[in-house]
């Protein structure tokens, strides 16, 4: 959101003083009324800029590290085309799926995507104890209030958003209007002029509390995104992630700055080990599994494993056992396998995901799949 002009406090843009200390790029250059600017537009402009900066050995951000353009290639057994896929096919004459397969087949690629765009990238993950982080976030909101964030929102609202609201065309899901703050202060900004000062103050206080809650929620979402995007997606095409603890900001140089500089100086052989990705083997995110017991189609190995551990699935397994006692007898005569990579079958009665703690049985009546090993 920092690419848009305006709302410098809301989007936490660097100050003029900070810009004088270090050159910053791609900040405040998109008109705030533009709602169609996408991450692809950002990437294309940034790649050209990085090509200019790369001889100076600058570093790059995550959205530019991977070659792969993500698309949904399969959905419930049917082919699905995204607008991006159609555009690629129109411009190149080559199906998007074929380009993705070529990327995955390149050196450094795997079943999840193509190789990294740049050599030896790393990511610094600033994390903190959640209780301490919540206090820091609340303090940041207080600093924003002191800096005049409400007046900034009011001025921006009058200039760009008031007419949209009168036309009932306001949109808080796209462009700069999705910034944290607009939705939270909507009632305050649109309060009738006839409202009493007490009513306005009440709406203002509600907006402040909503802003703090939204900020804390967004921080948790960011942490979850980092874990899912990098730490739970093993493979050679995942950048190394280095965790830096910012719980105690008074020790910033000791716990953040110095370790980060040390890592940058020794990227070829870091003195600090990166955070390890969870899971040593690759999972197929596009595999299809059918559970007739629950009448569900599950896409992806990880989702399939989670389904097999779910209470709903185990409920149907127990129900099947009661209605068909022969399942228990047939299960006793079969030798279960403890291999986490065992391929699921569809002929036995009880299904338990590998690693779920129940090793007496592995498979379930009515579960089918596409011969994809389920791993943890």
Automatic annotation (TrEMBL):
Residues 313-322 have a biased composition (Basic residues). GO terms for biological process: tRNA modification. Keywords: ATP-binding, Metal-binding, Nucleotide-binding, Transferase, Zinc, Zinc-finger. Residues 289-313 form the Zinc finger double-stranded RNA binding domain. Residues 326-342, 357-367 have a biased composition (Polar residues). GO terms for cellular component: mitochondrion. Pfam families: IPPT, zf-C2H2_jaz. One of its GO terms (molecular function) is ATP binding. InterPro entries: Dimethylallyltransferase (IPR039657), P-loop_NTPase (IPR027417), Znf_C2H2_jaz (IPR022755), Znf_C2H2_sf (IPR036236). Signal peptide: none annotated. It comes from the Eukaryota. Residues 313-376 are annotated as: Disordered. Belongs to the IPP transferase family. This is Zinc finger double-stranded RNA binding domain-containing protein. It comes from Oreochromis aureus. The gene is TRIT1.
């Amino acid at each position: 959101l920092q690419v848009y002009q305006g709302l410098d406090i809301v989007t936490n843009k660097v100050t003029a003083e900070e810009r004088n200390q270090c050159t910053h790029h791609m900040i405040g250059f998109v008109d705030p009324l533009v709602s169609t600017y996408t991450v692809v537009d950002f990437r294309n402009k940034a790649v050209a800029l990085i090509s200019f900066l790369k001889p100076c050995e600058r570093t790059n951000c995550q959205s530019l590290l991977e070659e792969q353009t993500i698309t949904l290639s399969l959905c419930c057994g049917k082919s699905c085309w995204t607008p991006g896929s159609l555009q690629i096919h129109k411009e190149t004459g080559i199906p998007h799926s074929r380009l993705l397969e070529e990327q995955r087949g390149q050196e450094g690629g795997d079943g999840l995507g193509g190789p990294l765009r740049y050599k030896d990238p790393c990511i610094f993950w600033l994390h903190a104890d959640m209780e301490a982080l919540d206090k820091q976030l609340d303090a940041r909101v207080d600093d924003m209030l002191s800096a005049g964030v409400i007046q900034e929102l009011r001025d921006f609202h009058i200039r760009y958003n008031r007419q949209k609201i009168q036309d009932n065309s306001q949109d808080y899901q796209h462009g700069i209007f999705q910034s944290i703050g607009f939705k939270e202060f909507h009632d305050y900004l649109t309060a009738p002029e006839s409202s009493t000062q007490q009513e306005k103050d009440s709406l203002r206080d509600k907006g402040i509390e909503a802003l703090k809650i939204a900020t804390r929620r967004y921080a948790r979402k960011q942490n979850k995104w980092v874990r899912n995007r990098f730490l739970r997606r093993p493979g050679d095409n995942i950048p190394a992630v280095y965790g830096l603890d910012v719980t105690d900001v008074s020790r910033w140089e000791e716990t953040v700055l110095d370790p980060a500089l040390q890592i940058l100086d020794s990227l070829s052989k870091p003195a600090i080990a990166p955070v390890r990705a969870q899971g040593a083997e690759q999972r197929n995110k596009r595999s299809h599994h059918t559970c007739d017991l629950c009448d569900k189609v599950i896409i992806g190995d990880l989702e399939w494993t989670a389904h097999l551990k779910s209470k709903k699935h185990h409920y149907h397994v127990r129900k099947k056992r009661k209605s068909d006692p022969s399942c228990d007898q047939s299960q006793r005569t079969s030798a279960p396998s403890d291999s986490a990579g065992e391929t699921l079958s569809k002929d036995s009665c009880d299904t338990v995901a590998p690693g779920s703690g129940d090793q007496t049985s592995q498979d379930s009546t009515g579960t089918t799949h596409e011969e994809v090993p389920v791993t943890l």
